[in-house]
Write a structure and sequence with these properties.
The protein is built from 20 helices and 13 strands. The protein has 584 residues and is of the alpha/beta class. The two termini are 36 Å apart. Among the domains are: 84 residues, 2-Layer Sandwich (Gyrase A, domain 2); 95 residues, no CATH class. A hairpin with a 2-residue loop joins strand 7 and strand 8.
Length: 584
């Protein structure tokens, strides 16, 4: 089904052609002066260049051709050549009645089967998730949902840090604490225990202890490096310990991500790319792309025309060690082979932009990635405290993600209990739903690349541009529909008030706004649209007698309209990765 804006463009383009001008000048946009008109066309200005005629005269010619239009109730030419347009209420209502019969409210699949691999995790195992992991998870989950909404096939990969020095540190520390474990017995040939020799709490304490020790104890640091080497060469006992570390860590990661309503399709890590490193390096050597530089092996990625100096991409250090770039490039090899993607999208802190530019250029230069495959890195900004600095705990440490979620959930629960509408049990469950909405919307409503201030009181407010405001709007509609008590199968009627017309216009714009979010990989566009829609719903609610309307057909029309608005809002928040409670 055509978007409403496309119908208007087609009508105005036809009028331009009928008046003897280029039909391409008939582009229509939402008016930037809603006090004057609903839509506008500025095409008379560019048309004047080829027609050698004053723009206002061209606009008048086009307006004359629009006088009999069934779509426009008025078309007016305004100096110096603008065309101000108002639509007929019946055409708008008819369009919305068609939309409510369609899946996704008229949003068409633009993906055409596009295959996307989305890397939006990146946690290191054996370490608790902290607020630094929040943005990649929230933004990535929303982009994944938006892409799928438009027909893309998306593979979400957590890409864990599970194969580096932190593993050697843990193994070395564990050996010092529990040298009697069979994993360290060179003569042991039996089956290793099924149960891990540590809990997640112990594991999360072991790593920082070992890391701190390695900075002051050279012998221990050497032992950790040796353990890392043996692990990466699959020493039997060490590899069994690594499997325990993975089992315990992944279970904890899944629990924490589930609390955020974030999920991944594959749980792969750096270790899964390890088998591709050696053959990849050999191939690059044979191609002559991998060159020596002061004992290291690098790929020169600088190109003529670069505005800034771009260092070479180092894949092997002078001591023979590989780096993140090596693993990331090998991971691309694995993803191209396993998924044959059309696009690879990475979400990380924007401070890694240079790293990904180097890796992407190396991937293209070497032919690892075909020219047709798009590589994109979205670097996000920092979540800061009210002091403008990266958000910390009161003691100055990095806050654990589950602590942040618990804090905002507790704050929301206290506000719900103040209203004395829900029982303590229902309030607790409802608070979890609202808290996730508050946290996600507070993040996603910002442009991803920008830093933002985390303010729990503002994020959790039930009024203003917040997640709880959207949820309250949906709950309000649910309450009206519940009290109405009948199947909402009415027909949306031509608007009989300014608030009804405003709500219908916002609903008609949903396909265009969602398309923009898809095109730009921008959840903030969904947020802005949902907030505008919620505002239009609440204005309509306050100005319209819905449940006390005596005219049954008119009442059915109102119910159909708010039902459509509820659907649109629920689709928006689903794309943002949260849901609405039944009451709040």
């Amino acid at each position: 089904m055509e978007k409403f804006l496309d119908l208007l463009i087609a009508e105005v383009s036809a009028a331009f052609a009928a008046a003897g001008y280029d039909a391409a000048c008939g582009k229509v946009t939402v008016s930037n002066r809603p006090d004057l008109c609903q839509f506008q066309c500025n095409g008379a200005m560019p048309a004047a260049k080829t027609a050698h005629k004053a723009p206002i005269l061209i606009a008048k010619d086009v307006v004359e051709k629009l006088q009999q239009s069934a779509l426009f109730s008025s078309a007016e030419a305004v100096n110096p050549g603008f065309i101000n347009l108002k639509i007929t209420e019946s055409a708008l209502a008819s369009h919305l009645n068609e939309l409510q019969q369609l899946e996704h409210l008229g949003v068409t699949e633009q993906g055409s089967g596009r295959r996307v691999v989305l890397d939006y995790g990146g946690p290191n195992v054996a370490k608790p998730l902290h607020i630094g992991h929040l943005r990649s998870a929230i933004i990535g989950e929303s982009i994944k949902r938006i892409y799928r909404y438009f027909g893309d096939t998306v593979v979400g990969d957590i890409h864990m840090g599970d194969w580096g020095l932190q593993m050697g540190l843990i193994i070395a520390e564990l050996q010092e604490r529990k040298p009697e474990l069979c994993y360290f017995d060179e003569a042991y040939e039996g089956e290793y225990p099924a149960e891990p020799p540590f809990t997640i709490s112990e594991l999360e304490e072991i790593y920082p202890t070992a890391s701190a020790k390695s900075k002051v104890d050279e012998a221990f640091a050497a032992k950790a490096h040796e353990a890392t080497y043996h692990l990466q060469n699959h020493k039997r006992g060490y590899f069994a310990l690594w499997q325990h570390i993975m089992t315990v860590s992944v279970a904890d990661l899944k629990r924490n991500y589930n609390n955020l309503n974030v999920s991944f399709d594959v749980w792969l890590g750096e270790s899964d790319a390890e088998k591709d490193i050696a053959p990849m390096l050999q191939r690059l050597e044979e191609q002559g792309i991998l060159t020596d530089s002061e004992g290291a092996k690098v790929i020169e990625v600088a190109e003529e025309g670069d505005k800034k100096e771009l260092p070479p991409c180092i894949l092997v250090k002078s001591d023979g060690a590989t780096l993140y770039a090596t693993t990331d490039l090998a991971t691309i090899v694995q993803r191209i082979r396993d998924y044959n993607p059309d696009k690879l999208l990475y979400l990380t802190d924007k401070r890694q932009s240079l790293h990904f530019e180097q890796v992407f250029r190396a991937a293209k230069k070497s032919g690892i990635v075909p020219d047709a495959v798009q590589l994109q890195h979205i670097g996000f900004g920092t979540m800061n405290g009210k002091d403008g600095k990266p958000f910390k705990t009161r003691s100055g440490g990095v806050m654990r993600l589950e602590t942040l979620i618990a804090d905002i959930t507790g704050y929301v629960e206290a506000k719900i209990l103040e209203n004395q509408i829900l029982s303590p049990e229902e309030a607790a469950e409802t608070a979890k739903i609202i808290a996730v909405g508050a946290l996600k919307y507070g993040d996603l409503s910002n442009l991803a690349t920008k830093d933002y201030i985390f303010d729990v009181e503002r994020f959790a407010a039930f009024e203003g541009n917040t997640g709880p405001y959207l949820l309250y709007t949906i709950v309000r509609i649910k309450s009206i529909l519940s009290r109405y008590g009948k199947e909402a199968v009415g027909t949306i009627q031509p608007a009989d008030s300014e608030s009804a017309l405003a709500l219908q216009l916002v609903l008609s714009q949903m396909p265009d706004q969602m398309s923009m979010a898809y095109r730009d990989s921008a959840p903030n566009v969904v947020c802005a649209y949902a907030y505008e829609l919620a505002g239009a719903v609440n204005k309509f609610y306050h100005e319209t007698r819905i449940l006390t309307e005596p005219d049954e057909e008119k009442q059915k029309g109102y119910i159909a309209l708010i039902s459509l608005a509820k659907r649109a809002l629920e689709e928006c928040i689903d794309l943002l990765g949260f849901s609405a409670p039944d009451r709040m």
